[in-house]
Amino acid sequence: MVIFYGDKQIMKHSKSIFPMSLTVLALLLALGGCRQNQSSLSDRVIHLFNGKDLNGFYTYLNGRGRDVDPKNVFTVRDGMIRISGEEFGGLVTQKEYENYHLIAEFKWGEQTFPPRVENARDSGLVIHSQGRDGAFGGNWMFGIELQMIEGGTGDFIVVGDGRQEFLLTCPVGADGHIFNEQGTPVTIHGGRIDWWGRDPGWKDVKGFRGSQDLEKPLGQWNRYECIADGQTITVILNGVVVNRCLDVQPRKGKIQIQTEGAEVFFRRLDLIPLSENTK
Fewer CB atoms < 10 Å away: N or C end of the chain? Predict the structure, then answer.
């Protein structure tokens, strides 16, 4: 199946093509409605990264706090954000956002740092982030993580403390934690929902690749997208829908880009509004 969003084709993985669920039909209808206003909304694309500096963000590092970065974990060079991974924390938007299509283009670098020198390269985008910086393990504020890790990019993680204010409801298979469009909805207040192709033999080792992995090889650019539309979130990796939630709390917040032991580069971070309320 191909889902059209503006001029972008989004492939739906073949395991979920027949029968089409009501949730997928709803997504198609929603995106169709968005296309009607595409010209007016696209004029208001929000470039989170301006290609020159980190204006619009602040940094937060464990044990250091806001905007204290003596090791230059976060830098801009050659039109790219470089996150070294040497310390844990995040690059955080100054503003909160809701109802948007987020487009990120990233690639892994070579460097890794303790305590994850030999572990899978790891980062993530934490959307709908709210509350106190460093509330989760001293590293991040609470939110909904779109995982970026070798072999597991596309997983959902609830970065919270188990309270009702942070939850995901996703359809999963009999295993109980792997996304399946025709599966049974399960609500979690912590932990993860894996993307549909995550290798059951996944190991936390540097360079891991599973048989169904959609990530490009090390050093090549990946397109990572998130359609956060009210109560739903759809995650897309290199043009393929890899995960989806039917309900989420909260439904707006800041966006954190994690530094978690691995060098990673971003050349694009754009938000396309899905409603006139997105600012």
Answer: C
